[in-house]
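Record 1 of the preview.
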Amino acid sequence: MAERKLAGHTQRNIRSSNLHVVLSMFRSSDTLTIRDITERTGLSKTAVSKIVNELLSRGLVLPAGKGTSTEGGGKRPDLFELSTKNTFAIAATFIPNLITVSLYDASLVLLDSERRQPSDCDSAPHSAYTSIAVDQLRKKPHEYFEYDAAISVLAGLIQRIMVKNHLTPAQVAGITISVVGIVSSETGTLVTTLINKAWPDELPVVRDLRQHLPFPCSIYLDNISRVGAYAHLWEKPQRYQQNIVVLYCDNSVGGAYIRNGHLVHGKRGLVGEFGHITTDYTFKSQCACGKSGCFESIVARDAIESRVCRELANWPESSLNACPDAPHVTIAELFQAADNGDPFACLQVDLVARQFSVMIYNFQIMYDPDEIIISAYCVPQIRYFTQSVKKQLYYFAGQTEMNLVLSSAGNEQFSAFLLNSGAAAFCLDQYYSNEALADLA
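->
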């Protein structure tokens, strides 16, 4: 009897595994035929037909017409495709001075978005918020959301976007909440916001949001830069089998280490807090964390612009003095001047590039990754900066082979879109890997 039960359990495991494999194939293909699947999996035609019928019955796969016939002129095969019509992901940004909610379909197409800032409270529809939340919003209309009010606003925006788009809870694959700070993703807790202390520590964000939503749903919580980096996996599916490091830098610094498709957090959720790695022990300016020489304290946009403002007077011949608001020069103007060969601008950009080269070399030593992806600054172009990074990196790494992708972060709207789409991609992957076929376990 025990052997029979064990055999039945093994069969269920094999069936579940095969279903996940085939579903994964549909997610990475436009259309598939039964023959395509049998050739790539080695499963029999009968087994594949049963699997496809199972996925059809669950609404995960849809018929997609007929394929082309074989050279012998045989029967045209049936085509099947992943269903993206009834599965949606919600990505939310949840920080003290901004709450956004974005809706994506299963192909990661942005369908709708909502956003609220504390200053919006007087004009925002309060019907979905509690009276306590409205009172708290009005206490500090131009500063930060109180935490309880923020949870209420977030829940209200989620329900609002679902109503606007005629979604039922069953159609929502999940909700990913992106926050700034140290996160315990396992418990759904915002451990600390680190620098911005508008909210207290140890906030059970996932638990509190569940209590405000009138329906059950899978909810994930993670650091905004870490989960945002997940978008790079969807750009190139081969990255799911690789180790990659992602670094984002503009007015703050964040990133992620992704190992074989999995976000690495570490014991205390510190992996990805690259901004507080020391890259220059001689730098005396203090970081917001209390230390000096931190990467972020040297390369953040505000830090760069402040240095330029202080030092530009010593370079009267610099073209930056002709900028409309000089000595208050924007980072875009600085990078453009460096591209044009301005000596002062080049020196300033070289200083920043040196920090990046140290950080990249540290990545190479710590993680030995297949690829390092860096999105640096919301500026139109970074030609001189890129050249300087690679030149100074040679000083540290020599001829070490390195797959480095270094590009501008684009404009602020694109940067925000990329971070949100990463959160949605993570949510969809969790759904298709775990939730969609959960009852087979």
